[in-house]
């Protein structure tokens, strides 16, 4: 069996300036902090980041760890590593609007369900998704987050907005539990985008809270198959928010 376990530094070694990455999490709940720290250490710049939101900035609420440090994508924003964010919500982390006002950051808002389905379409090899969300608004004629033309499709007399798949170079995901092949599950609120992002990039990297041997747990509990996972990083701390 191929050994998928790598160090955090090895996991992010292939990330280069200007690449597009996906980061799981919802207000950093379920974000792989050990991988965000490794990206900050690497110092890569000009990233396009796909996620639900901008994580949390230092000083914002965060349970037991409130205010001690930024969380999730917030760490990348703190270090001015991001040029473009593609997200469903940008109103919590103040770094987003500060950098937008400075002219150093571009953001593209995508409805949350549409964002999830665009990512899922990329993971499953689909040509896109049809949604009613955005019909009758400027979304019908605006270009999408990657500059691609939008289309309105009519099927059986009903109109739909055609949204194209959204893919990245790397997906960074934080499972609650995984085995050494990369099969994994995410508990409760940490499921969020951590499930749909697997396979929606050229390289899927996971940083589980707990890692077990293959066959040690009931295989029916796995939510995502390890065949989609390229590398596994140990050492992620327990759920921090």
Measured distance between first and last alpha carbons:
35 Å
Beta content: 15-25%
Structure classification: alpha/beta
Number of helices: 5
Q: What does the radius of gyration come to?
A: 18 Å
Topology readout:
Blueprint: E1 5-6, H1 8-11, E2 20-23, H2 33-42, E3 47-50, H3 73-78, E4 82-87, H4 94-102, E5 106-109, H5 112-123, E6 129-131, E7 151-155, E8 158-163, E9 168-173, E10 177-179, E11 184-185, E12 201-206, E13 210-212, E14 231-233
Parallel strand pairs: 1-14, 2-3, 2-9, 3-4, 4-5, 9-12, 10-13, 12-14
Antiparallel strand pairs: 6-8, 7-8, 10-11
Folded structure, characterized:
The radius of gyration is 18 Å and the shape is globular. The chain starts with a strand and ends in an 8-residue tail after the last strand. The longest helix has 12 residues, at 112-123. An 8-stranded parallel β-sheet has the order 1-14-12-9-2-3-4-5. Strands 6-8-7 form a 3-stranded antiparallel β-sheet. The chain has helices at residues 8-11, 33-42, 73-78, 94-102, 112-123; strands at 5-6, 20-23, 47-50, 82-87, 106-109, 129-131, 151-155, 158-163, 168-173, 177-179, 184-185, 201-206, 210-212, 231-233. It is of the alpha/beta class and 241 residues long.
Describe this structure in a few short sentences.
This protein is α/β, with parallel strands linked by helices.
Which key terms come to mind for this protein?
single chain; 241 residues; alpha/beta; 3-stranded antiparallel sheet; 14 strands
